[in-house]
Amino acid sequence: MSEINTEYLHRYLETLKKSYFLLKQSKEGSIDYEMYRNSLVKGFEMTIEQSAKLLRKKLAPYFASKRAVDSLTFKDLFRYANKHSLFTGDEVERWFKYRDNRNSTAHDYGEQFASETLKLVDDFVKDVEKLIQVIQND
Fold first, then answer.
1. What is the model's pTM?
2. What is the mean predicted confidence (pLDDT) over 48-76?
């Protein structure tokens, strides 16, 4: 199996972490705070999408065809990752929360979705780092 390139995922994750760091340094309600919060939320969305794309590639060898793996929903990807011992049940449940939150951000551009995303960031960063390890291991 050829190596899966995680460069973009690394980049998205580093951008997300930097936005989060700068957000915590900013005064709530300031333009800087808004800018870093918006960057963090966008980074969260992009990281989730890239994570699913790469996990799909990682799971491809477990399926008879590319079409079969391509037809999986986001949550099914993580269910199969759990089935093949790539993630624990608890990790999969957190990924479901991230996806549900990401779906909310796509439809609700208010303070509520941003504050919900902020609550998830610490665990999300750890889980993405684990995902990168899973993808890179053969």
1. 0.89
2. 95
